[in-house]
Amino acid sequence: MANPQKDFLFVLIKSLSKSEKRQFKIFASRLETSSNTKFIELFNILDKSENYDEKLILKNGVIKKVQLSNLKSYLYKQILVSIRLNIPSQNIRYQLREQIDFATILYNKGLYRQSLKILDKTKQQALENDEKHMAFEIVEFEKLIESQYITRSIQGRADELVIQAKELNYRNTISSKLSNLSLQLYGIMLKTGYVKSDEEYKYIDDYFNKHISRLDKSKFEFREKYWFYNANLWRSFLVQDFLSCYKYSYKWVTLFYDNKNMIFLNPVFFLKGNHYLLESLFMLKYKSNFKKYLELLEETINDPRFPVNDNIASLSFLYLYNNKLNYHILEGTFAESEYLIPEILNKIKIHNEHLDEHHEMMFYYKIACIYFGNEKYQECILYLEKIINNKNLSMREDLMCFARILCLIAHYELGKDYYLENQLKNTYKFLLKMNDLHEVQKEIIRFLKNLSTLYPSDIKKEFIKMRERFIELEKNTYEKRAFLYLDIISWLESKIENRKISDIIKEKAKLSNR
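RE: above sequence
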């Protein structure tokens, strides 16, 4: 039996909305004959099934095993055709593609002037919406028609098309180079993580400058600017230059707000830019701007013009709620944020097919932080164990590491010495296997290990000593990011002053003018 998570047809059918299923059945009824009712039967079986089960499909005897593979492929294609026919008319890319298809039909029928008329109108629309790849495709098609047939459509047409082709090719090449650079920097991030030394910093800087040195930024239009800011952002994240992260994510988001039609044409790019802007503001603890852009993002998502589909709905949930939690963590308003938790858990179920495990685990980590700040340590441990027991997070050792460390501290707060000792051993073993163990992580382990050997009268002195040590580490460019996962300094201060950690963080947030 096939894995339901890997059976593409089953997953596609389960992703359909009620209206899409209704539309498919109307569409399929047009195709229904005595010879092809089987694919409709297969659709109905899979639609009603909770899991993909070939035995259940074959049980009624209508579909034979030898037919199943071809039938599934046919059904998959017909579902996509049905969805394609019912795509909202406001989607400009589908409109452009449809017009190019119409022009191709006319060209194949020898109606060259009609084909050229459609292509010229579609090209103008593509250029107005910054769809330069499609515009280039149209120009190439126009060149084909003009070079094969004497249309005498416009005098000097050949020169005009050659100039357009050169300009569009140049702009598409620049965009491609910048998008390649952005992807390569992202690949470096996945492979080696953030820079850990001056040598690594220099390598990234040289690599980046080598790829952008010959570009004329003064000639950039929307698409080139977008990819330029994108590449700069990934370079900034890699070298942990959070101020630069803010600078380029702000330029990215402002570019969209200055060209509002692009928000609705490129909603995914818009959402990602806002997420990186909010993440940068969180890293800089710039709470006033954080609140401003979070509210603006939510307002834009709720705009009736903002596109709605499964992918965009999932990304909107991911970025909006992730940053709502970040805002409460930044403000220290842990008790006030607990209402978000059931909402988030419910939405995780709704968007389960579209969320990867990493993002789900990030939600669990932040929920654990909310419970920790609210001194609900058992609930905190419950969500941290979901991360610790996950065997598929090898790409995110940092998340696994801090989940274990926060779990250690939560066990310490509960005063469960036996569990604490086991946690220490397990965490220490895990950290030894890590590829990029930071000094902050080493110090936390040493500190917690030593606590059990101290006299009660000496514990406060140890807290004070460790606070000073961590304040120094926070100033280190290659160590400061660790404090974004875990505000160990505020926790130490809460132990020294015998106060709630939420009160410490709230006080710091009020003292900050940003």
